[in-house]
Amino acid sequence: MKYIAPSILSADFARLGDEVKAVEAAGADWIHADVMDGHFVPNITFGPLIVEAVRRVTRLPIDVHLMIESAEDYIPAFAKAGATYISVQIESCIHLNRSIQLIRECGAKPGVVLNPSTPLQFVEWILELVEYVLVMSVNPGFGGQAFIPNSLDKIKELRRMIQNRKLNTLIEIDGGVNEKTISEIADAGVDIFVAGSAIFGSRDYKETIGNFKNKIDKN
Fold first, then answer.
1. Catalytic center residues
2. Is the Cβ–Cβ distance between 180 and 215 less than 8 Å?
3. pLDDT > 80? residue 112
C-alpha cells in the first residue's frame, strides 16, 4: 500500500479546515504536519493546537513530524491533540529509544527522521522499534525546495536493510516530491509520499493526487 500525505505547511492557513477537507476529498491518505521551533530548523510553524484543529475536520491519519529540540517535552501534547503518527529527528534526540517508547506510551505510532547528510547507520539499532523511517530529501526548514538526487541511494539502501531483516517498517519521503520526481522515488522503494506545494499549489487537488497515484502504481 502506498500513501499520499499532503503537508499542511503549504496550505492556506486562513482556511485550513477547508483545505484539509479538500485534499481528503481529493484522495489523500494521510495529513502531514511539519512542526518547527526556530531552533532545530530556521523556521517556526505551529504547535498542538493546529493538530487538534485538523483532527476535528478529518478522520485521516495525522502524521506529525517534530523538527524541534527537546522533542520529548512535546510528544504527549501532540499525541493528545490527535496525532496518529509522530516522528522525531534522530539528530535532536539524545535518548532515542526513550523518545520512541514515549510516543507509543502516549498512544501514537513512532517514526524517526534522517536529514539528508545523516547516514543510515543511525537507524541500525532502532529499526525494529519504529513504524516508519522518514528520509528528508531536502534540508528541513522550508517548503518548496528542490529534491536532493542522492536521497534515492539512501532510500534503496534502507529498503534493502528492511527486507534483509524481514521487517514491515515503512519508508516515508519528504522534500521535492512532485510529478517529475515521484516515479523514480516510488521505484526506489518509498511507501509514504509527503508533498506540500506540489499539491496545495496546484489548481486541482484531485487531479494532482490522482496523477501521483497513477505514477506510483506504474512502479
1. 34, 174
2. no
3. yes
